[in-house]
Amino acid sequence: MYGVVDLTAGEPDAAADGTARWPGSAVAAAFADAVESGRLNLPLPGGGWTRERWSVLADLAGDDLSLARLAEGHADALAILAELGHGTPPAGNHRWGVWAAQPPGPGLTASRAGRGWRLDGIKQYCSGAHSVTDALVTATAPDGNRLFAASTTDLVPVAGTWPAVGMAASDTLDVRFAGIPAEPVGGPGGYTDRPGFAHGGAGVAACWYGGARGVGRTLLAAAAARDVGPHALAHLGAVDIALHTARTALDVAAAEIDADPQDRDDGGKLRALRVRAVVEAVSTEVMLRVGRALGAGPLCHEQAHARRVADLTVYLRQHHAERNLAELGALVADRGVSW
Questions:
Q1: What is the pLDDT of residues 211-239, one digit of tens each?
Q2: Which of 141, 149, 182, 252 has a Cα-to-Cα distance from 286 of 20 to 30 A?
Q3: Looking at the 3D structure of the chain, how many domains does it have?
């Protein structure tokens, strides 16, 4: 069930000595605790417990979306390593990230160095730049796009590359690589060609759902505490329908993944595009309706709510809007649909 777990990630403004903390310090500490305690040892996608896996991610997102972003990356990395034959890393304090964004601009290149590989360049959108100990990183190699595992020990996060307020505590910075040793994980194209790529993409939507559910609870709490009027109640009814729709879409997707983990029916990409679009639309609607129902009050006076809205607004942009819808439309036109 998509319920609530006790894993908070408050963000104090200053350390005990009065000095300012860097924006993600409390979230980084909560992330480290979650990894070391085993709370992020989640069932792998397609193993019969995908719904439960996503439930944990949704719960974490309801507490703190930046924490969920780090947790999702760690859990995804373990699933990728297992799927591509590298097994599960030893338990303990290894905290993993997946740095696979490839936007326009400077990128990362891989070249052979003796019997191994090295990475050079700038990688953008590296969540947990200061807090992960290891990362799975995509880079352009002479034989194509590849995935590599690298230690973060000698990496240099580029200060000031995430000036945004939303998702500030996720510590998502550009990272500079300079001759960093790396181990290939799978072959050229192996990262995106595997069935789990689509499964992981759908799993991110569970985090969006958890964040939207948290936003919706602000309106639910207000309606339970006072007379918010018929218009706000109408918005609450619409929020209930939207969140129920998103949860149903996630449950159906999880069941389908468990029924066909190797994606022999070739439905993974279509499924991921659908569920991500549904949850993105629901999350956007929930934020809009809660804002219209309650006005500026929670955004101005409730820190947790204001931060959640700012974080979710940014996090949802992992969905590429009309570009992803056009991709979905092309698949539908090519294959036909059951509806």
A1: 999 999 999 999 999 999 999 999 999 99
A2: 252
A3: 2
